[in-house]
Design brief:
The protein has 279 residues and is of the alpha+beta class. The protein has helices spanning 3-15, 17-26, 49-56, 60-67, 76-85, 90-101, 117-125, 144-149, 161-165, 167-172, 176-191, 198-210, 212-220, 265-277; strands spanning 130-133, 139-142, 229-235, 239-250, 253-259. It is built from 14 helices and five strands. A five-stranded antiparallel β-sheet has the order 2-1-5-4-3.
Amino acid sequence: MDVSMGVSAKVEESENRLGSCLRARRELVTPAQAGIPAGGNRRVPGLRREEVALLAGISADYYLRLDLGRDKNPSAQVLDSLARVLRLDDVERTYLLGLAAARPRAPRRKRPEHVPARVHQLLAHLRIPAFVEGRAFDVLAANPMAVAFSPRLRPGENRLRSPLLDPEEQAFHQDWPQAAAGFVAALRTTIGDDTDNPRFVELVGELALSSARFRTLWARHDVRDLDGGTTTVHHPVVGDLRLHRDKLPIDDVILVVYYPDKDTDSDEKLRLLATLALP
C-alpha cells in the first residue's frame, strides 16, 4: 500500500468522520434490503445518496452536505432516520450519534496504562487463562496459563495485530476472519471520538500499511462491543477447546478470563494444559 494513500485516507476520515461513516454504511445496504426495485445500471454498490435521503425523509441536498462534511451538526432525529435506513443496530446507532456530537480537542500525550498490583496478585492465583488488556487491545499482563493457552497472550503482544498478521494465531481460531472482524469493529467502538490518542493512531497506521484485511474491514465502519462470549480454538497440544470469555473492567484496564463448562471435554483438556504449564 502506498504510504501517501494511507495518510490521505486518515486525514479525510479525521476531518469528515461522519461523512466517511455514512458512505461506508450505505454501500453495505442493498436496494432489495431497502425495498427499492432492482433494475437499471447502478454505478455504486449499495444505495445512492438520493435514495438514502428519500428513505430518511430529508432533502438530497442536505444529505449531500452531510456526506461531504459540510454540515457536521445534524439533529438526533435526522441521525435516527439515517440509522433506520442504513439498518444500524443499537451499538452502531450510538456510534453514529457520537460522531455528530464529537468536538475537537487538544492533542493528548501518550500515557502508559497501569496494571494495579492487586491484579498481578489475582493473575498469579488463577488457574485458568487470564490476562489484562488495554484500550487498544495491548496485552499488559498475563498468567502462565494464558501464555500456555496462546503465546500471543504474552505482555507486549497486541490482540488485534495477532489475528491479522500472525499465521499461527489465524490457525488457532476456528473462524479467524470473524475474530479479526470483531476486533476491528470493537477498536472503532473503543476509539470513539478519541481519534488523537497516540496509541490508536500508531496501531491503526501500522495495520493500515501491513494488512489488506484490516484496510477492508476498517473501511466498512463496523462497530460492536467485544464483551463476553464463547469461542472454539485449535490448541496445538491439547486440541480443540470450547471456552467462555468474560471481560471484567478493573480501574482503567480489562481483565480477560477464559474458562470451560465444568466436567466437559474442554475442562479436562484445560486441566491437562495446566499440568504442562504450571510448576
